[in-house]
């Protein structure tokens, strides 16, 4: 059979279609399987300082970072295997310590992370921190486990002037239950006090974490204190001494429980006005006027039921040398608040003995209507006489 031009053209088209179809089928993977996706990039963990580093700063240098993945665990161990707490960023790509490191100490960092495919990697490094040129000590005024009055102020003293006052202040970590804002205030460069805006709520549980170890308080001078303490705020007791009326009222948990006659400072030696906190209790103690600026006017070896209210020598105490008619009728002291008492501190029925037995460290005694200034906030634990907007200002 003869084929013309049209038949030849149809045959050519069929050949082209068949060839194209065959080429497409050849490129398709057998069984319709998909090609594997490329592998995720390998995780890279960076530790600063580098392994083997020495003279590392106690703050601001240690950090861990991750590229092409996230950190899943970072452990830093120091002296005696203690772990350094730290903070992992929300995106998991960095970690930093939450406190200063110790001086002249070896630390080991172990960082674990994974990439997008879940492949895990680990990196370690060891380094040693800088040696301190000198150290400073820190002392505080509240015993671990103590129960204190609502006026208690946490006070720290340092044996050398502090230059980086913000760093040292921030290294004292205070938490409370219930929660309350507690702030620090520096008096000079060697005393740091902490209190809330108002008196503590009774029953408040306070935890203090001293993290001053490794803090550079002055160039080359580092702190050593690393300790935790707790204390509890007991019942509320606030006593108001009216120097003009020569009476004091004791109010406990909002209710008046007793009013007692007193003698306060004589016209030439008035008692400070203001809120004062009981910081010491002595069943008996010696009071020598020469130690507080008087020229031998008195030296009493056995003052009973004495409780300190100021560093400068103000006490509320028992008085056995004045006649009973003095109390409530005459201000005759050298600046203290006196209550009727018996010599020897052995009579529990006297007003002074009763007040002594019913007071604890941290209770408040506020003096009003005295012919004197308000006591300075750093004369004793008397920061309650400073306005809250000034407490800690400029630090």
Automatic annotation (TrEMBL):
UniProt keyword rRNA-binding, yes or no: no
Residues at the catalytic site: 317 (proton donor/acceptor), 336 (nucleophile)
This protein's UniProt keywords: Acyltransferase, Cell shape, Cell wall biogenesis/degradation, Peptidoglycan synthesis, Signal, Transferase
Signal peptide span: 1-26
Pathway participation: Cell wall biogenesis; peptidoglycan biosynthesis
Domain L,D-TPase catalytic: 237-368
Keyword check for Acyltransferase: yes
Full protein name: Ig-like domain-containing protein
């Amino acid at each position: 059979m003869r084929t013309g031009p049209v038949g030849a053209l149809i045959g050519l088209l069929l050949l082209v279609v068949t060839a194209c179809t065959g080429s497409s089928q050849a490129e398709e993977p057998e069984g319709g399987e998909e090609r594997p996706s490329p592998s995720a990039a390998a995780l890279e963990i960076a530790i600063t300082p580098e392994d083997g580093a020495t003279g590392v700063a106690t703050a601001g240098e240690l950090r861990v970072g991750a590229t092409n993945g996230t950190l899943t665990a970072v452990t830093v161990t120091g002296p005696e295997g203690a772990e350094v707490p730290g903070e992992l960023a929300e995106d998991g790509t960095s970690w930093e310590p939450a406190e200063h490191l110790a001086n002249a100490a070896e630390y080991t960092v172990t960082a674990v992370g994974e990439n997008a495919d879940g492949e895990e990697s680990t990196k370690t490094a060891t380094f040693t921190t800088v040696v301190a040129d000198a150290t400073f000590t820190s002392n505080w005024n509240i015993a671990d486990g103590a129960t204190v009055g609502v006026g208690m102020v946490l006070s720290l003293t340092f044996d050398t002037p502090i230059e980086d006052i913000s760093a040292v202040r921030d290294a004292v970590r205070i938490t409370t239950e219930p929660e309350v804002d507690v702030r620090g205030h520096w008096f000079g460069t060697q005393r740091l006090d902490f209190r809330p805006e108002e008196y503590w709520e009774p029953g408040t549980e306070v935890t203090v974490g001293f993290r001053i170890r490794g803090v550079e308080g002055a160039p080359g001078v580092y702190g050593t204190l690393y300790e935790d303490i707790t204390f509890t705020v007991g019942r509320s007791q606030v006593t108001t001494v009216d120097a003009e009326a020569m009476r004091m009222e004791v109010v406990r948990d909002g209710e008046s429980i007793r009013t007692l006659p007193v003698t306060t400072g004589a016209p030439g030696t008035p008692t400070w006005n203001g809120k004062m906190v009981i910081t010491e209790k002595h069943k008996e103690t010696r009071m020598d006027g020469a130690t507080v600026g008087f020229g031998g006017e008195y030296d009493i070896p056995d003052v009973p039921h004495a409780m300190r209210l100021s560093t400068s020598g103000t006490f509320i105490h028992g008085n056995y040398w004045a006649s009973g008619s003095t109390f409530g009728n005459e201000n005759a002291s050298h600046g203290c608040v006196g209550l009727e008492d018996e010599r020897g501190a052995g009579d529990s029925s006297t007003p002074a003995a009763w007040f002594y037995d019913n007071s604890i460290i941290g209770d408040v005694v506020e003096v009003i209507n005295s012919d004197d200034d308000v006591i300075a906030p750093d004369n004793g634990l008397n920061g309650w006489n400073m306005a809250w907007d000034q407490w800690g200002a400029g630090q």
